[in-house]
Task: inverse folding
């Protein structure tokens, strides 16, 4: 079926602009995450939600496509391709995140089952008519879990050098701009608006905590240097 480059017939230009820039910032966030993984051998993506993230992207890259236009479909697919490396890295390095020994023992199996479940969830959620034509409802369900898990992971990880502030800002701005487009695209969809605002608040909490802990860490390092 023919898909326009950008669907100006069904969506407003300003909404498409916010959504498009937000999608682009998520692709940038994934690219940063890939670079951080290669450098640190540690994955900032919370291990328990990684399967949900790539499962949703698989469905909306290859089974369904956002009706906002071809450029938006390509951004979903670009995110999926980057997420393939991220998910592989989660399988490889995910047990470096705080978890008990039993979880570590079955981690790869759990991750693969989680991935399969979220493919089925995202597919059936849309197929049964619960989702929007760009996957916003299911996407935000996963996104709010991701944002919450990021805060939990930060609390549980002592070494703040493992986290990138640039990644945190890219993720927050990407989701924030997409959330603005949700108010424009779906003014009556209070469900997705609530989840979008919740993600924005959680992402800013993450940035604030990371900033405070980075500052504390730098202070300790300087004190140590002065003492030596």
Result:
């Amino acid at each position: 079926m023919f898909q326009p480059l950008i669907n100006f017939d069904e969506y407003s230009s300003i909404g498409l602009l916010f959504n498009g820039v937000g999608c682009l910032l998520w692709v940038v966030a994934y690219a940063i995450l890939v670079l951080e993984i290669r450098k640190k051998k540690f994955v900032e993506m919370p291990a328990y939600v990684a399967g949900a993230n790539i499962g949703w992207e698989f469905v909306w890259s290859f089974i369904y496509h956002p009706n906002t236009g071809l450029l938006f479909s390509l951004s979903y697919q670009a995110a999926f391709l980057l997420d393939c490396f991220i998910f592989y890295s989660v399988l490889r390095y995910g047990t470096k995140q705080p978890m008990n020994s039993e979880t570590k023992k079955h981690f790869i199996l759990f991750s693969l089952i989680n991935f399969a479940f979220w493919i089925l969830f995202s597919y059936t959620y849309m197929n049964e008519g619960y989702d929007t034509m760009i996957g916003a409802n299911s996407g935000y369900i996963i996104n709010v879990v991701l944002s919450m898990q990021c805060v939990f992971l930060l609390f549980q990880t002592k070494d703040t050098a493992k986290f990138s502030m640039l990644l945190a800002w890219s993720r927050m701005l990407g989701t924030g701009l997409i959330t603005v487009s949700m108010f424009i695209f779906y003014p009556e969809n209070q469900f997705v608006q609530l989840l979008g605002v919740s993600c924005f608040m959680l992402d800013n909490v993450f940035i604030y905590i990371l900033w405070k802990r980075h500052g504390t860490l730098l202070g300790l390092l300087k004190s140590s240097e002065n003492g030596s």
